[in-house]
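Posting this for the archive.
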Amino acid sequence: MTLETIPLLNLGIILVPVAFVMWILYRWSLGPGTATYSIARMVAQLLMIGYLLTWIFSAQKWTMVLAILGVMLLAASWITLRPLRQRDRAAFGRALASIALGGITTLAVVTFAVLDLDPWFAPQVLIPLGGMIFANAMNTVSIAAERFEAEHGAKDYVEARNKAMGAAMIPQVNTMFAVGLVSLPGTMTGQILAGVSPLIAVRWQIMVMCMIFGSAGIAAAFYLWLLRTIRDQVQN
């Protein structure tokens, strides 16, 4: 089986279940505006990045690859703050430092040790992997930050930290339990659809699952550690 380009008319059919969900949101007075905006933004962003990546892949320049990863990192750090009441420069700095530590460290291990890429900046590999790492670290830090903010008022730091870390890692742990039984994750599914042997696809998926778990956990733990350090400095 060879995958072909999806015709635009066929692609439009997938909007049918989306429209049904929009109708439910409208009928239940939940307001479909945010969901509609998110879908429109998703389509626009994917079209933009599709054209951009086509250009970057053909250029094969490490400066472009690092620039794209930098934009991803900054955007992920900003989006992390969305559920928080405090969204100042200090909070952004903590999010940026945390995602950078967990994400860049893990991406370097994958690039230079696991895959041993040649060239090391191969955009077809580095940009997708970086996106997965930063996005999952973003979500994990965001959950940890929001839960810590909610718990810290009634608990001491250690208890609030543990609650926040436990909650933040639930999606990662659940994904580990479900993979192969409930779902075939994106990397493995994409490779199988492209005709790669499932046994090879499994190796890639193991790498992806471990890099996501590790980078997300490191980022969340470092973010919560920064909160403790800042609190200690204020008290002293």
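The mean pLDDT is 88. The longest helix spans residues 198-235.
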